[in-house]
Amino acid sequence: MGFIKDYNDIHPQPHHHHSINLYPPQDHYFEYTYNMNTSIKTAIIWARTSSSGALETRQSTTRQVEDLQDFATRNHYQVEKIFEEHISGRTKYEHREVLSSAINYAKENHIHTILTTELSRIGRSDDVLFIVKECKDAGINIYFQKENLNIFQEDGKPNPFLNIFISCLQFSASAELEAIQMRLKSGRDKWLRDGGRPGKPKGSGVKTKEMKEIEYKSVIRNLKAGQSVRNTAKITGVSQSTVQRIKKTFAI
User: Were 48 and a residue from 85, 107, 124, 251 both cysteine, which residue would form a disulfide, CB within 3.0 to 4.6 Å?
Assistant: First the structure.
């Protein structure tokens, strides 16, 4: 779920410009586009929030968009379109319709840079690497505002530090998961040594209706708003079978 605003929505005043082909053959592409004489570069803004609540997400996404519009103005970017996505960052890239639309728009319209607030807005680290590679192969820059990182440097060459930074994030997430698993194993081993018995205690793991209402608040909200089970699963990052069970439990 998301919103897309085009150039006419962003710039209501008439705007006239001549169409110029700035894209030579691929072997000269990077050096040419990043050293062009024009001071105005085309851009799109991409913003994401996890929550699908209409008011909450609009406020949060608005802050991102306003920050990026301010950055674009200060750095001579002409924003052609704004893409706003309201979906969990855990959702797989193939189910991120707004993000996919943004990247396809950038490819088809020869957009210079995709502006976004931070790496985590893209989603999981694996997705970030894949998307960075896809855009880099297409000659599209992405600027991550929080990290102050670009795919391409000023001379048009790929930024080698970006992949290192993303790899560090992956390693950090992996190391944190391993540390958690080790602590859990250590605690379980001690519990067994102290006489604990394997298996779950009777009744453990059973969620009350109240617990489900809190945990699956966004699922319930989307179903009540008229979204289908399939769309709700995509929007919230929850499996369709779980969405179906929640729908039945709350008679939505």
Answer: 85
